[in-house]
Amino acid sequence: MGLTMDADALNAFLAREFQQIAGEFIVDTADDEVLVARLKVNQSHLRPGGTVSGPSMFALADLAIYTAILSRIGPVALAVTTNASIDFMRKPEAGCDLLAQCRILKLGRVLAVGEALIFSDGQDQPVARCSMTYSIPQNRPNSGG
């Protein structure tokens, strides 16, 4: 299945439907294989010890996989996370944005499964790995506008 939304369309959707995260998360790129989303790390994402918090990394993974699914099915705001697993592997660098490289592993009629590797910008080794399952609404009543 090809893309129905590119990075620009996904960012416009996020700005419209999720104003509470405006400016924090950006979809850098989206193609048929990989979506890359960015968390613009600031002081509010840090925890004691000078590292990015786990909840901030989880939010990035959730947004990356969500937008990767939407890139294929269109602007369905009511697609929701039904399962999540995250492995924290390394301490992210506090002064760097985080990037999530996401792949969709399965896209069915009612369920989608994706995986995201999270990196500190400019680093080769991932700091976290996350897999998530999403429920896709049957009727898709909210197409985002």
UniProtKB/TrEMBL annotation:
CDD domains the record matches: PaaI_thioesterase (cd03443)
- List keywords of the entry alphabetically: Hydrolase
* Top-rank taxon, per record: Bacteria
**What sequence ranges are listed for the domain Thioesterase?**
49-125
Recall the GO molecular function terms of this protein's record.
acyl-CoA hydrolase activity
Instruction: Give the protein name, as stated in the record.
Output: Thioesterase
- Tell me what organism the protein belongs to: Paracoccus tegillarcae
